Amino acid sequence: GENVEQHPSTLSVQEGDSAVIKCTYSDSASNYFPWYKQELGKRPQLIIDIRSNVGEKKDQRIAVTLNKTAKHFSLHITETQPEDSAVYFCAAQGGGADGLTFGKGTHLIIQP
Amino acid sequence: DTAVSQTPKYLVTQMGNDKSIKCEQNLGHDTMYWYKQDSKKFLKIMFSYNNKELIINETVPNRFSPKSPDKAHLNLHINSLELGDSAVYFCASSQSGGRYEQYFGPGTRLTVT
Predict the structure, then answer these.
(1) Which terminus of chain B has a lower count of CB atoms within 10 Å, N or C?
(2) Of A85, A80, A83, A81, which is closest to residue A108 (Cα–Cα)?
(3) B101 touches chain A (CB under 8 A)
(4) Do B48 and A43 touch (CB under 8 A)?
């Protein structure tokens, strides 16, 4: 089955700096790669996703890049703000009704 | 107009009991999922289900079973609860065929004593 590795497990950055979280996956059949943000005690919420036919996608301060050859994808957050503090999960999914395989999460801490 | 809802929000029960968690979505999706988030925050797929197939993660004990009375509901039944079943259980839904956003419910925190 699919295996998703995520690094780092904890990331502390100064407010206004950029944050980068990296993930690798093992199943070359995976073709959908979402990123979820989870605040303490809340549900995971999608912040951005990318499909295998696209190499990069951007939405305001958030961007995701995908390298299918190397089987890795990354989340980039620019101009970080205190409200960006949360746990971020990457995930991968194949076709059909397969569920998401999640990475183990990155606890992002924005230092004022 | 909650998209994905779960009941109950909290569930405290004793070992050996049988319990159910209910999930409903009003998004018109035809694929629903159950995920388990353990104390280390690891999120793991348990089941995916649409009107054509049920996919079961091979690591899920057969004490867990999904029941879908219709496309808008996917309930989770757990028999003979064990201490290790304590976790937060999330229901989610999406359009079919994969590659679509999954919308998560608010979660049910299950505590087995």
Answers:
(1) N
(2) A85
(3) yes
(4) no
